[in-house]
TrEMBL record, chains A, B:
One of its GO terms (molecular function) is transferase activity. This is Malonate decarboxylase subunit alpha.
Amino acid sequence: MLEKADGARAWDTLERSYRTRLARGAAFATGKTVRAGDIVPFLEAVIEPHDRVCIEGNNQKHADFLAASLAKTSTETIHDLHIVQSNLALPPHLDVFERGTARRLDFCYAGPQGLRMARLVAEGKIEVGAIHTYLELYSRYFCDLTPHVSFVAADAADADGNLYTGPNTEDTPAIVEATAFKSGVLIAQVNRLVDRVPRVDVPGDWVSFVVEAPKPHYIEPIFTRDPAVITEVQVLMAMMVVRGIYEKYGVARLNHGIGFDTAAIELILPTYAEDLGLKGKICRYMSVNPCPTLIPAIESGFVEGIHCAGSELGMEAYTAARSDVFFIGRDGTMRSNRIFCQLAGHYADLFIGSTLQIDLEGNSSTATLSRITGFGGAPNFGSESRGRRHGSEPWLKAGAEQRREGAMPRGRKLVVQMVETFGDGMSPTFVERLDAWELQKTFDMPLPPVMVYGDDLTHLVTEEGIANLLLCDTLEEREQAIRGVAGYTPVGLARDREMVARLREKGAVQYAEDIGVDKRLATRDLLAARSIKDLVAWSGGLYDPPSRFRNW
Amino acid sequence: MLEKADGARAWDTLERSYRTRLARGAAFATGKTVRAGDIVPFLEAVIEPHDRVCIEGNNQKHADFLAASLAKTSTETIHDLHIVQSNLALPPHLDVFERGTARRLDFCYAGPQGLRMARLVAEGKIEVGAIHTYLELYSRYFCDLTPHVSFVAADAADADGNLYTGPNTEDTPAIVEATAFKSGVLIAQVNRLVDRVPRVDVPGDWVSFVVEAPKPHYIEPIFTRDPAVITEVQVLMAMMVVRGIYEKYGVARLNHGIGFDTAAIELILPTYAEDLGLKGKICRYMSVNPCPTLIPAIESGFVEGIHCAGSELGMEAYTAARSDVFFIGRDGTMRSNRIFCQLAGHYADLFIGSTLQIDLEGNSSTATLSRITGFGGAPNFGSESRGRRHGSEPWLKAGAEQRREGAMPRGRKLVVQMVETFGDGMSPTFVERLDAWELQKTFDMPLPPVMVYGDDLTHLVTEEGIANLLLCDTLEEREQAIRGVAGYTPVGLARDREMVARLREKGAVQYAEDIGVDKRLATRDLLAARSIKDLVAWSGGLYDPPSRFRNW
């Protein structure tokens, strides 16, 4: 049955295509450097119809010049592209679909463009492959969604194509590696061309072309939360988290989601948690972006080490001056990397974040009717790490609490959601049925878009108390534990008071007084910083907030 | 409550320590290049007591010269190191503990050194922090186990320290990034110093020192399986996997573990699976090393894309000549990367591997009494990907079959274990209680060392049949489904025949005849290659097996 290989088959079509594209592109470049004014014909020369194209669009950094230029190419030359991109944040990201440059889309997160995307999907202009988490989409770059052409953004490049990303390295290494090592065309837009880059974040070897964009790449400060807006309810919830979860389990390695709820926790570490003697015991290592609200906890010696997925505008000088805490390059500025940060967070002991809706099984979703958003990295952080094997105190404690079938003992990652019982516009956070079910129908998704699944969730924290789902023996108990912290929402009011009392006895429902939290202390006085200006002061003037956050 | 930062505290102790070490090391170097003869005093100059040290020891590639040199340093100068290393495979890896150079150890896999390690642990010479999976340990490099000094291995370096790893890039990027960006000393041993590296795998920027080793670095061909040794029982099991799992669910993206069982599957793709019309439908994208037994499936056009964790000795020319299939650098040779390969496999649709013992809950373990081994990457591949959100046919099918509490529909990764009912020395693979429980006691581990947990497992394949655990409604059914394929082992003989018959009716137990597998075809004739020589022929002479596999 042995057959010999068919000698006639070509096995290097991608490589030969790469060389052809490179030769076509060279007409618009000097060495690797493309003339910005020629960018549209250049793209028409190197991109082919039906290509898979990745446009770097991270949480923060965007290859916006290249994205906008793609939307200007002739649809006769370039059409039916398959865009494989993490974040759709800018109008050109959708323009390419509106005009037919692209047709198919695999992505992670749409945010503000979600409404327009929904319309384009309804009109048949976008065929959505799937909505991914960050780690999943990058993984597929190494499997069935490898880009033929990728656009990345960097701060500087030299003539050899060596790239310097500055602190916002973010997703660049994942995109670059998948593209450059599968004969893909890698095009970098940079803020400036220099003789020598401050450090090499991406070797020039891997980069096909570089273009100096007319304007520095777009960057969004999405991790800045003004302490002035934090409420006393959020302070109370933060106190409950510190005592009822961080102290109880001894959580030293963790990830904080984005939002005011977790910002409140960060700001009471140097006050409330310090008074409890928890320094050196909790919150020692974090996998997060350099959120400005972390500054007081860092300065107090609470948080010892932080690895970042990306950077945050205004935090450049601060992170550079705190090299014992942050990951810093030989040039003295921060290096971020979303892949490693997501992984470190996934295998850490706790994830805590906020959400918009929670159902009676504990499934939570940030999906909103009429718009397609997506999950970002929350499900990677906020899910059980089943591939984990190393023990740690909080992981083993949570595992010992957990009800599970069978005799084999296990550890358990702590996955916590923090919500107020009523959200914006006084709509209840707790619902019998998530809007995600409607969304599934509207957008013909295979499953309702759930951010954190109920069986991944271990704790739910509201202003009323903490539901510890690990201690619930049945789905019915889980439902009542959730109702037991759902306050005056219809879900909360419909609780079975007797069962909630029993759950409270066994610790599956805990109120402030059960864990020694004195509600009278829950004032804004407990916040180590109460304004952006305070954060600047804590940083010794190193934090330089974007002007929209400066109100003094 | 606002306090100002204490201006007196130093925040750059790591960076200052780095500069001091660099200056001390420079005495033994010309530029970045250390003189090989000075390696011992050089290491004594740059390493300090209690440092965390990472010695690159991958599945295959080893920084063996540096490891051996570390074991020669003065224990007065260097002692009490904390080794954070994935694989302990070579005697010097343990010599450093025996002589007191190192004391604490966090690792992934010990393999042949497991016996000696057990002795050193018992003697108190090694304090084991924890046994990790690969992804976990790398993750901790970015959290609480960041190395102060790392040794990596590469094929070539230039005077600036740019490294070329060749196809065995493996773990290097993860180690390098964690070390270089947290003020760690990165030392590379290379096979040769060159004027210009064929491609840059690690920018010189990130590398502190380079040393040309007296001998090329050690490398192990651990993914080579001689088809001559594959049995007809393995062929039968492979046929059942193809029909009962790959065809049923439409598995296109997957990871194969290491071993003869999965090699048998690979070798019947161009014969059995092709006859079933499955080309283009199953096994299209794989996250694996370039196992020689994949050659016929690649040549037949079955497997379209492969991303590799590492390389395999003898496969260099073949992978380079198949750039449409493998990930290849601009220089034309393969690039591997364990992190991305592990991630791609984790988020793919199926993992299949072999194990040594399985209990009645479906927990499996490769742990052996009296030796400490570890898990490697199997648990990362072989666990439910709870952070996954994108749909695919097999994932949704498996999710629809799965029994779960609550109303929220889910997808499910297929996790398959293949075993013969009796293993080496005719000891039964199926046991009431895993040896892992004994090991836990002996080595004082927090949990029994389980490789794949029963609740992550979806299918168990033996020569008797397939147990589909997704379709089991209770733990009792699960137990009987396992007994139902456990053959003549005591566990198999103790089955409840009536319940197994009921499980067979609902598809939770399937025998060859239930899935249209004709046992008479299960002969070695079905193997597309029946020897290493056949593999070489399939490759058109490109595969160049190591001499120990050449018997013609």
